[in-house]
Write a structure and sequence with these properties.
156 residues; mainly beta; 6 strands; elongated; binds zinc ion
Length: 156
Amino acid sequence: MNGAVDSIPLDTAEDLSAEPLGGAAFAAPVRLRGAITNQAGIVTLCADAAVSLGFDCDRCAAPTVTTLHVPMRHTLLRALSNDADWEDYIVVPDLRLDLTALVREDVLLALPTKLLCRDDCRGLCPACGKNLNDGPCGCKKEIDPRLEGLLSLLDE
Ligand SMILES: [Zn+2]
Ligand SMILES: [Zn+2]
């Protein structure tokens, strides 16, 4: 049996829509794909959770739906041994795994605190409120008073 690989494929959709997320919401059930494998007696859950999130961008308030991928990796044990780092291990004494709870925990931990429509969102102009992703606004930039005199120099 040494070196034998046994595997249970994972392909499920976990509905977390009841979960309060502040300003965001799950736009679709979380799609979990991966496998639980036994390699030489070590049972590992390895999966990707595809999370579809709907939210208003924290910078420009644009309604956004985006998909985040949360990698999940856990070692499953029947009992915890003393030297095990409990963060990575899941104890399943009755050999039943609460997959929904596990996905929920991993996904909530992985959600970014700032949700942006895109990584380089320019946000809104604090003066006129224009969405700067659509182009620059006409507002004058605040000028350091020590440099203000140089404006006339630039004009010459
Ligand atoms: Zn934005
Ligand atoms: Zn402006």
